[in-house]
Amino acid sequence: MEDIIFENEYFKSVMGKVFLIKKLFHNQCQEATKNVHVTKEQCFLLHMIEEGKLTQSEIAKQMHISNATLSVRIKRLEEAGYIKRSLSSSDHRKYTLEITEQGLMELEKAALAIDGLTRKMINSLTVEDYEHFIRIADIITQNLREEE
Quick one: pLDDT at residue 130? Predict the structure, then answer.
């Protein structure tokens, strides 16, 4: 019988490291943002809204979420006073999103906290390290997409 992948030492090592990185980043991100009132995902969404270049469908695609999930997240940000949503003047079927002053303040606080943690995480990586990691991540992503 062919070896079961969970018995492969390389696979176990890689997956263990992936889980550890995710856990460490999550825990340290929570600590770094404890005085911020938006999540990492909301921070990312606020940043994309601030840039103002993408449609809601494009934002959903970049965040790897459905349009329905994005709508819920947008509604929460609107209810919190971080964004303003209004009907598009050119197409009354669409909304334009605008970040509010309160949203900008929260985005800045969150971005500073997350930026410090991100810089710590990638401190000694080289361009070659990035390129190698991206190449491997692309291969894994492609392999998993073939199953869909």
Answer: 92
